[in-house]
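User: For my dataset I need records formatted as: sequence, then C-alpha cells, nothing else. Please produce one.
Assistant:
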Amino acid sequence: MLKYAVRCSKPSPLTIMKFKASIRLALSKFAPKHRTSSSRLHQKDHQANHAVSGRSQSRSRAQNRKRRDRHSTAMDDIANLYRYEDLPAEHIRVIKLQPGSQGDPIVCEVAVEHRKDAENTYDAISYVWGDPDDIEAITCNGSVLLIPGNLFEALGAIRNPASPSRLWADSICINQDDESEKGHQVKKMGHIYENARAVFVWLGSDVEEIAKDCFDLIRDTNTYLCKQLERHQSISKVPSFRKPYPVCSDPAAWSKVRSLVRLPWFSRIWVIQEVGLAKKGIVMWGREQLNFDELVEIGLWEVFRNDFSNITGRAGLETVVTPFYDIQATYRNKDTWRSNLPLTRQITEEQLEKSLLFLQVLDGSRGGCASDPRDRIYAFLGHPHALKENGETIVEPQYGEPVDAVYLDLACTLLNHPREAPFVLSYVHFPSTKELEERIMPSWVPDWDTGWYQYSTASPRFWYKAGQSNGETQYQFQSEVCDQGDIMSLNIQGIIFGRLVWTSEPVSWNNLSMHRNLWDEETQYSNEHLVDTLLRDGFKAAPCTPERSRDREDSFSMALVQGYPGTKKREDMFKHRRDYQAYLRASRRAMQLESNSFEDLDTGSDQGGAAVAIESQLTGLTARKFACTQDGQFATVPGAAEANDICCVVIGLSVPFILRPAGNGRYYVVGDSYVHGVMEGELVDKMEMGGVKQETITLI
C-alpha cells in the first residue's frame, strides 16, 4: 500500500456557485430578498493596511443593491440556466459581449469556433474568481448564466458602449462541471492567451480611488529610469540615487503602489501564464488602465537596485518581478509586451539565453495561491519546457486523481526526463524538521503545495560538479523507484562523506547586508555583525590549529557566497579574499552606526564595488543555515538540517545532499547543499582512486 494521503477532490467553483444560488432562491420564496455584501478573496487580510472610507463603502453597498435588484428576475428563473453543449477537439468558445453602458444588464452570446479560426480575433480576461458566494447572473444565448462577481465587474468595465466585443474568459468559455473538457482546455490555455489580441488584467474596483495617482507615478518614474538606462546602457552603471532624488520619494505616494500589488490578482498562479503569454497586457483597476510592462519595468528597478528601493520604501514589487524573472521572461512567444521597455527587454534576452527547467518554472510559482493544488502543475503546461518533443504536454491533467498521487507521478516522470532528472531532488524543500517528520508523501518527492521557502543550490547554469570526476568518465544520474509496501522508495548511488556537528539558525540575507536599514531589530541591536557571529560559532563547533585557520576562513567565506555559482570557473582566491575583506569592513562599519542608508556606500569606488560583489551573492542563502562537518568543512544547508544529519554526494548530481537516517538503512531527503571542498568532484576522483566507496542509498 502506498503511503500517500488521498486529498479529496473539491467540486468546481461553478458547481458551488450554482448550488448556493439554488438554495438562496428557494429561501427567497419565504423571506425578503437580502444578501450581505461578501468580501473579495483575501480582502480581510488587507483591511488593516487598507481602510476603506465610509463614503466608498456606502457607494459599494449601493451598487450591490442595484445589481441584486437588476438581476432578481433572471435569478428567479433557475430552470432557464445556460446549458453547455459538447466542445469538439481543437475548438474553443468565444464570447460576443453586447454593447452597453454602466448599469446596463450584461448580455452575450457564446459561439463554438475552431481554435485556429479564432486566433487574433478576441481579447482574453485575466481575473480572480474570488469568493464562491459572490456570484452574478448574466444573459447568455437567451439563458441565465451564473458567473463570479469579479468577472461580472470586469465585463461591465471592458465592454464597448457602441459595438460588440469578442472576449474569452475561463468561467464562461469552459464548462467547469465537465472534468474531461476542463482537462483538455487546461492543456490549451497557453495557446488561448498567446493568440488573443490583448489580455485585460482585471484587478477589481478602485474603491479607494487611488488608481490614477498610482498609475501616473509608475509611468512618470519609468520615463526617468528608461532615459537613465538608455544613457548608461546597464542598470549597474547607473549612478547611485542621492538626495535630492530625481523621482518622487513621497512615502504616501508609494503606499498606493504597495496597495496595488497587494490586490488578490497578484497572488494567483494561473495569472502568471495568462499575462506572461500575452501580446499586450492591459491592467485595469476600476476605470484606470496601465500597460503591464510598466509595472514589471519599475519592479525590476526596485529589486535590482537597493538604492532605488530605498526611495520607494520597498513597495513590494518583487510580487511582480519574481514570476516575471523566473517564468514569464522564459516564454518564447515573439509578439510580446516583454520587448517594449529597456530593462524588461534586457532581462528577457538574458533569461532566454540560459538553460531552464520545468522544475524551475514550478518553483518560481510556489509563493502564489491556487484553490486546487493540482493547478500548481497544470497552470504551467503552456510553458515550452512543459512540452515533449512531439508537442504533447509532459503530463496529462488529471483532476480526478489525489493531489499527492499527481505530485508523485510528476516526480517519477521527471526522473525519467534527461534534462530534468538531475535536479528533481534539489526541489525538495522542508521549512523545518516538523514538516519533514509529518510528511506523508516520500521525502524525495517535491511538494509543490508548500509556499516558497528557499533557493535550490543546484541549477543547470551553475558550475558545480560534486557528483562528477575530473577525469574522462562522465557519470549519469541513475535512480530506481521501488514499492516497499509501506512507501515508495528511491534507490540512488552515492558517497556518504561527513556528518554535521553544528548548524546555525536559518539565515535571512537581509541581516548579512552591509546596510543597517535592511536588518531586523534583533540584528540591529546585537554586538557584532551576523557574519562574525556565524564565523565564531562555526570555529567553536569544529576547532582547528592556527596553521589551518586561514584555510578554514576561506572555507567559510566561500560558503558564504556558495562558491560564486554563476561564474564559469572557480573564482580567483586572491580576488575573493580582497572582496570579502572589503565586505567585512563595510558590514562592521554599519554596526558602529546608529543607521546607514544606501548612499553611505560608494558603489563606484573599488572598495565599494568589491564589497557589493560579495553582497550580491547573498540572496541564495535565504532561509538556509550555515553548518560545519566533523572535518571542519563549512557548508550552507537546508533550513530543516540539524546536527548529526549526514552529507552525501550523489553520483551524477552536481551538489551534495543532506540526508537523515530513517532506520533500516533508509534515509529521508532533507535537501541540497553547498559543502566547500567537495563541489569540484573531489570525492568522485577519490572514489576512482579507491579511497572511498560508493553505495546504494535508499531514500523514503
